[in-house]
Amino acid sequence: MPTVDSWLLPDGIEEVLPEEAARIEAARRQLLDLFASWGYDLVITPHIEYVESLLTGAGHDLELQTFKMIDQLSGRMLGLRADITPQVARIDAHTLGAEGPSRLCYCGSVMHTRPRALSTARSLIQLGAELYGDASSASDIEIITLMLESLDSCQVKGVHLDIGHVGIFRGLTQSAGLEESTEQALFDALQRKAVDEVRQLTESLSQSSLAAMLCSLADLSGGVEVLERAHILLDGAPESVMAALDDLVEIAQTLSRQYPDIPLYFDLGELRGYHYHTGVVFSAYIAGVGQSIAQGGRYDDIGEDFGRARPATGFSTDLRLLVERGTIAGGERAPGIWATYANEPGLQAEVMALRRRGERVIVALPGQMDSEAPEHGCDRILRWRNNAWQVTELNN
To answer: What keywords appear on the UniProt entry (predicted)?
Structure first.
């Protein structure tokens, strides 16, 4: 039996009305065309699949964010995707099986059991690009550049870029031989920039130099000059740590040349996605938005759970947030042509001819008056005049 509130949607679940939907679709086409021009092939993944597939690799952190249900056919647990990245990784590793680098992109809806921090939305339109099969910093630079070009394509202004590298923390903790519980506590302390806690957790290390390096991560944040300080403070660190620093320097130099107006902020204690990211992590921010507008990073060996380990790097964004904060060309509905209801020979043929030429034509239904045309976004009318069907201005 219907209730008075049957029209209500669950908290954080939103519908998209025509005006916004037109802008979102224009942005989607625009960005997928941009990705295609860079050589990224579109893939479409299922909304629902077995939970173990969704929560492998990059998906481990998504377990609490994933809606789950029982498949009535197999009896197995299904999940509603909360992130498309693991699905695309499966396609690359198992379905396509390419030997060299491959470039894939996607756009689709995802559902979260809870909203992200500083957000109320649980239903997002995730759009992104992934580059598989290459472990060099050139791939990271390509993905970051593509992300910035995507933001520019949507005329998102005032972007600044935050960059980190989880390989630095991972290299130091592995060299120190920390227990998993201590490493997790150190991770938590660094995220809160709790310098005293970091110092307490590292004071028992046998190698005082490693303890000092781990403590320094909490303070190594700022502009490009931070990388110079890092080379001094981390001198003598494991080779993997110095290689990670060199990668950051290369990325900083390249981006500074290509985007001199975009501020770069480096945070070597930034460990977002630490449990699946393996290298560079990055986020784009703009003023007035409390969360990143686009983000990504490197997650090598993401395909291991699907039978083939592959280095990978990529980025994603919420298309609705992008449209809300940008300016989308072509998102406005084009004025239409109103065709008066009439059972006249040739009317349908003329309407179809106009539509084939790209015109938006709305044929009146029985009982509709020409005065209703403006309500339907029409500024012209198709009438029979002088023995021919003619399109004239509505107020003529």
So the answer is: Amino-acid biosynthesis, Cytoplasm, Glycosyltransferase, Histidine biosynthesis, Transferase
3-class DSSP state for residue 375? helix
Identify which of 125, 132, 146, 128 has the alpha carbon closest to the alpha carbon of residue 308.
Answer: 132
Rounded Cα distance between 245 and 280, Å, is 10
Q: Identify the structural domains of the chain with CATH numbers, from first to last.
A: 11-156+292-333 (3.30.930.10), 159-286 (3.30.930.10), 336-393 (no CATH)
pLDDT tens profile 53-100 = 888 765 556 888 999 999 999 999 999 999 999 899 989 988 887 889
Q: What's the pTM? A: 0.90
Confidence of residue 207 (pLDDT cuts 50, 70, 90): confident
In three-state secondary structure terms, 73 is: coil
Longest distance between any two alpha carbons in the chain, whole Å:
97
Q: Which residue has the tokens 């949507």?
A: 154
* SS3 state of residue 377: coil
Rounded to an integer, the average pLDDT of 164-172 is: 90
Strand order in the sheet with 67-70: 48-50, 77-80, 67-70
- Cβ neighbors of 118 (< 8 A, separation 6 or more) are 290, 291
Q: Say whether 227 sits in a helix, a strand or coil.
A: helix
Give residues with Cβ within 8 angstroms of 249, minimum separation 6: 227
